[in-house]
């Protein structure tokens, strides 16, 4: 018996794979390496290089490895870029999920943990987001994740598919130095890249209605996130009931300036960040309650902002 991890060669997916291995659960990775890294997958974990759009390859993998459940992390994850590439985003995230669910149905696999996103909420008009906060995605990426949740709901109605969706907020840090966030868009790698290249990191707006004037967001460590996937997958495999959606947030946000302070402390580089104008559509504060996940998924926040930045700083191909 094994668990398929789609996107298991990516930053988050590779941490999830290692969490499964540590927990003694067999898994197999499917990834097309469009943004993942083959070296992120442990050598003793089976790896299949394939697109989610290749339903036959998915079916073959499920048969070859006696798959009983799926953790679905693969997808096109750049919300801002998705505005310029909507058709590509829907193809990868919506059609890819349809293909995966078709392969599961044909293979008799009826349990799936879905990697969703805080982007499903858009710009909520509440300070603390709960699972009952209305969804109003503002990008094709956010829309595609919400559609993914709908597809799972409909598969449950039609075929009895057991599922839960984990809505991520800002995932940062690293559990081991060889796994790192290589995104060209996320804040932590942008700050790290700037400092290593001798440039000054930038803050977009410092006149928000927050304690220090900069945007406040919910940041969670990737290792904590990975552990939640293990608990969710085990629950589904054991037939336990889960909520259909969980927010993986800490309920207490961190400001951009606090991250800059942590970067200076960890790196030893004394810098004053550049300040630019606000970016359109950036709300002042978005944090999420993780109460449901704490109740059902053993969700805990184990890292401070300094811990999170230090683990990111010490990871990656340029960590020396």
Automatic annotation (TrEMBL):
Protein family according to the UniProt entry: Belongs to the NAD(P)-dependent epimerase/dehydratase family.
Name used for this protein in its record: UDP-glucose 4-epimerase
Native source organism of the sequence: Aeromicrobium alkaliterrae
Keyword Disulfide bond: no
Superkingdom, natural source: Bacteria
InterPro entries: Epimerase_deHydtase, NAD(P)-bd_dom_sf, UDP_G4E
Keywords linked to the UniProt accession: Carbohydrate metabolism, Isomerase, NAD
Annotated ranges, domain NAD-dependent epimerase/dehydratase: 3-249
Protein's gene: galE_1
PANTHER family reported in the protein's UniProt record: UDP-ARABINOSE 4-EPIMERASE 1, UDP-GLUCOSE 4-EPIMERASE
Cofactor annotation: NAD(+)
Enzyme nomenclature, EC number: 5.1.3.2
């Amino acid at each position: 018996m094994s668990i398929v991890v789609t996107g298991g060669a990516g930053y988050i997916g590779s941490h999830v794979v290692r969490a499964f291995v540590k927990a003694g659960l067999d898994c197999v990775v499917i990834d097309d390496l469009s943004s993942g890294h083959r070296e992120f997958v442990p050598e003793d974990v089976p790896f299949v290089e394939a697109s989610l759009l290749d339903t036959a390859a998915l079916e073959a993998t499920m048969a070859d490895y006696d798959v009983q459940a799926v953790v679905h992390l693969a997808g096109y994850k750049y919300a801002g870029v998705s505005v310029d590439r909507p058709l590509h985003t829907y193809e990868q995230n919506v059609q890819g999920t349809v293909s995966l669910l078709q392969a599961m149905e044909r293979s008799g696999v009826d349990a799936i943990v879905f990697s969703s996103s805080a982007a499903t909420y858009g710009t909520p008009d509440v300070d603390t987001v709960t699972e009952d906060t209305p969804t109003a995605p503002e990008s094709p990426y956010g829309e595609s994740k919400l559609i993914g949740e709908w597809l799972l709901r409909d598969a449950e109605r039609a075929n009895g598919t057991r599922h839960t969706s984990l809505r991520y907020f800002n995932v940062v840090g690293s559990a081991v130095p060889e796994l790192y966030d290589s995104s060209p868009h996320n804040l932590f790698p942008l700050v790290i890249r700037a400092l290593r290249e001798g440039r000054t990191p930038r803050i977009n707006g410092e006149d928000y209605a927050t304690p220090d004037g900069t945007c406040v967001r919910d940041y969670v460590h990737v290792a904590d996130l990975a552990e939640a996937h293990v608990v969710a997958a085990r629950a589904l495999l054991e037939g336990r009931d889960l909520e259909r959606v969980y927010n993986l947030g800490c309920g207490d946000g961190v400001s951009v300036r606090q991250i800059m302070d942590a970067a200076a402390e960890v790196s030893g580089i004394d810098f004053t960040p550049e300040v630019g104008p606000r970016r359109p559509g950036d709300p002042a504060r978005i944090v999420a309650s993780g109460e449901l996940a704490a109740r059902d998924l053993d969700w805990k926040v184990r890292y401070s902002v300094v811990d999170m930045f230090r683990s990111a700083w010490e990871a990656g191909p340029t960590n020396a």
